[in-house]
Amino acid sequence: MKSARRLGVLLSLALAALLPSARAADKPNFIFINIDDLGYADIGPFGSKLNRTPNLDRMAKEGRKLTCFYAAPVCSPSRSALMTGCDPKRVLPIPGVLFPGAAVGLNPAEQTVAELLRDAGYTTACIGKWHLGDQPPFLPTRQGFDYYLGIPYSNDMGTAEEGSKSDLGAPIPAPKAAKNAAAASPETGLTGFGQPPLPLLENEQVIARVKQEEQQDIVERYTTAAVKFIRAKHDKPFFLYLPHTAVHFPLYPGRKFQKKSNNGLYGDWVEEVDWSVGQVLDAVRELKLGAKTLVIFTSDNGGTPRAVNAPLRGFKASTWEGGMRVPTIAWWPGKIPAGTSSDEITGMFDILPTFVKLGGGRVPTDRKLDGGDIWPVLAGQPGAKSPHDVFHFYRGLKLEAIRSGPWKLHFAAATNPKNKAAPPALQLFNLDTDIGETTNVAAANAGVVQRLQALADTMKGDLGLDGVGPGCRPLGRVTDPQPLISHDGKIRAGFAPK
Length: 498
What we know:
Layout: H1 2-26, E1 29-35, H2 54-62, E2 64-70, H3 75-84, H4 88-91, E3 104-105, H5 113-119, E4 123-127, E5 147-150, E6 199-202, E7 205-209, H6 212-233, E8 238-243, H7 264-286, E9 293-299, H8 321-324, E10 325-331, E11 340-342, E12 346-347, H9 351-358, H10 375-378, E13 390-395, E14 398-404, E15 407-411, E16 426-430, H11 446-457, E17 476-477
Parallel strand pairs: 1-8, 1-9, 2-11, 2-12, 4-5, 4-8
Antiparallel strand pairs: 2-10, 3-17, 5-6, 6-7, 9-10, 13-14, 14-15, 15-16
């Protein structure tokens, strides 16, 4: 009797030990590939005739294009939305982006998608550009990532003499005097020619000083690390965030891709990014992970004037469609319908609730999130709609436009600051018929204008129309911020290789 009872207990324990593994086996893997400054029509699936992107072409044929996926106009805010599931202004209320040595960053009190997935049993890695703060409390390894490799901000935020202010092969600009370069900086960090040397971090160690050679190797380095992570961690659920430095200025395509495109250095680098996507997807296929891996490819904001944003108007740093609507592809064979597309409104802040729900995690309920679960849209479920009736277009702290349905209303500030011609007070566009925002129809649609103005006014009590609104949460903040590499080349204490 005792033996039978003991056998029963042992079998129960064995079964209990197996259950977590069974649940883990059912969890999908997540790969999020984020390109820097990629234009809407820079890749084949979105109409490029200049750049060859066979791997992205295949990804789109096997997956689903999201033709109305929004990011923020610039880097740091966009990444804060991705990490937190919130409107960028809610969690990172700053005028622009973060720079080296910034006293502020993404508040560690925020719950990131990496933290929530790790709590749900995932192994996590960030390989590439972080850009949410370079002080210790703000680094990826303190925000839910088990592993980090990358330049912690943009590749132009280094010294001119080491190649950070000029493209591959271009003359190095003469150094300019930097006022108070080594002294206390504004809270968002050191800018221009006052920036210190560019660091490459692995976890919390500076493993290299990024000069021209390292810039040219960066896509291959990130890709190699990403594939290595997939191969090493494929037996458990994983979340890989791959935010490439490319194709941000300065342009440094790898040696194998240099002068190989028909579109100069920019085309060379776009084609190297396509190669990188192919390497990642090939690793997933080789390991037979396709049936359990969701991959999303996108850009952190619209392209610069070097990019092709057609048929959209405007570029990065604007609230025109060309500044915030980004080329996006979702891939999950057998789960996402192949060769399809959706024009439902989706965006960076939808990734956290979507991934966490799919991964069996807990979406936070103790704070406001602005994103929603877009899995029905990704999966092509009949009648699936965007979770957003209204979308707000902030540029820094200022609300410059608002969208509801096909209607987008620009306020007077939505103009290129270099353009001295004053724009009309209000500009209304029907994006269903005028995606290029060419014809202002405000005069003929007074009722629509009034409705959108009323919707915008509701933000006064939340994020605010300008400045920091009552619904904005505190920034992370440190006293005595220091760059990871000082102006005289010394690595910050605690970050030197061991």
